[in-house]
UniProtKB/TrEMBL annotation:
Protein name, UniProt field: Deoxyribose-phosphate aldolase
PANTHER family recorded: DEOXYRIBOSE-PHOSPHATE ALDOLASE
Protein's pathway: Carbohydrate degradation; 2-deoxy-D-ribose 1-phosphate degradation; D-glyceraldehyde 3-phosphate and acetaldehyde from 2-deoxy-alpha-D-ribose 1-phosphate: step 2/2
Physiological role: Catalyzes a reversible aldol reaction between acetaldehyde and D-glyceraldehyde 3-phosphate to generate 2-deoxy-D-ribose 5-phosphate.
Gene: deoC
InterPro entries the record matches: DeoC (IPR011343), DeoC/FbaB/LacD_aldolase (IPR002915), DeoC_typeI (IPR028581)
Pfam families: DeoC
Domain of life: Bacteria
Record carries keyword rRNA-binding: no
Active site, UniProt feature: D94 (proton donor/acceptor), K158 (schiff-base intermediate with acetaldehyde), K187 (proton donor/acceptor)
Cell compartments where the protein resides: Cytoplasm
GO molecular function: deoxyribose-phosphate aldolase activity
Length: 225
């Protein structure tokens, strides 16, 4: 597989979710996203307005995370957080499912949680990605979570927060692709550090990549252009 640097950049949510991220670190992330023209900048909700303003005049979206990283906040909290983030300028929402309810077999609670956030997101014409945190799930649970993401009305299913025991794996992306079919979108995130790893995820079926090592990977891609 070979993509140009510009093509690969549009797969990337350029990510800065570290809890210790300072304003200077956020501004550097914005500057890098503007330079490489990534798909989005993904940050914690506190920084949404700063990123939205910093990306003005580009087609780089502002992406934020909801119920992050554990997914164990109430649905009402997730909905409020989503509405506030969109009001601050978010174009894309990445929410974490209620992992405990999924593992406990309460699929309806998981679906309802997703649907509530999907409705709040789509009401404003924005995009919803749903993080299922694969490293905590069995293959059966990954399949079930992926299908519940579709049923709940989201736009993407996403592998990982990047803050648990491991991140994206190509075999999980393939499993998710089988679960959601050929047209539903998948985001692979967490632990993607090289050009080959990025290609592996795309070949497995990922439509978007959550990456903090975007600059390194895109510079690697430029050497192959």
């Amino acid at each position: 597989m070979k993509l140009t640097q510009a093509q690969l950049a549009k797969y990337m949510d350029h990510t800065m979710l570290k809890p210790e991220a300072t304003a200077a670190m956020i501004d550097k992330t914005i500057e890098e996203a503007r330079k490489y023209n990534t798909a989005s900048v993904c940050i914690n909700p506190y920084w949404v307005k700063r990123v939205h303003d910093g990306l003005e005049g580009t087609d780089v979206n502002t992406c934020t995370v909801i119920g992050f990283p554990l997914g164990a906040t109430s649905t009402a909290s997730k909905v409020f957080e989503t509405k506030q983030a969109i009001a601050d300028g978010a174009d894309e929402i990445d929410m974490v499912i209620n992992i405990g309810e999924l593992k406990g077999g309460n699929d309806q609670a998981v679906e309802d949680d997703i649907r509530a956030v999907a409705e709040a997101t789509h009401e404003k014409g924005k995009l919803l990605k749903v993080i299922i945190e694969n490293c905590l799930l069995t293959d059966e649970e990954k399949t079930r979570a992926s299908k519940l993401t579709v049923k709940g009305g989201a736009d993407f299913v996403k592998t990982s927060t990047g803050f648990s025991t491991s991140g994206a794996k190509a075999e999980d992306v393939k499993l998710m692709r089988e679960a959601v079919g050929p047209d539903f979108k998948i985001k692979a995130a967490g632990g993607i550090h090289s050009l080959q790893e990025a290609y592996d995820m795309i070949e497995a079926g990922a439509n978007r990549l959550g990456v903090s090592a975007s600059v390194k990977i895109l510079e690697e891609a430029a050497q192959q252009d």
